[in-house]
Amino acid sequence: MELLFSNKRSHRVSIPAVVAPATPPPPLAPPPASASGQETTTNTTSRPSDVNYLIHWMKDNLLTERVELFMEGDTVRPGILVMINDVDWELEGEGEYVLKDGDEVVFISTLHGG
Prior knowledge:
alpha+beta, two-stranded antiparallel ribbon, 7 strands, 18% strand
C-alpha cells in the first residue's frame, strides 16, 4: 500500500470534523422561482466526517498513483482490509463509521504478487 502513498508506511492526517454533504452537479437550467418570485434553494446541512469521506480525501490528497489499486467505485477495492482502532470496519459500519478525534484507520492489502 505504501507504494501508492509516496512510499510512506504511515500518515498522520487532520480532516475536518464536519463536511458538506455530497452535492449534485449544477442544473443545466436556472432553478425554478417560488410563488413569491424568489429563487428556491436546496437545504444543505453539514454531516460528520466518516470513513467514506476519509477514503475520498486520501484519494484526492495522498494517493500518488494508480487509484484503481486503492479504490473501486466509491469504496476501497476488494482485497483491502480496513481496520478502525484495531477492529474490522465491517463491525463498525464500514464507510458510515463517524470518525472521532484520535481514531486510527489502517488499510492492509491482502493482495500480493507471486
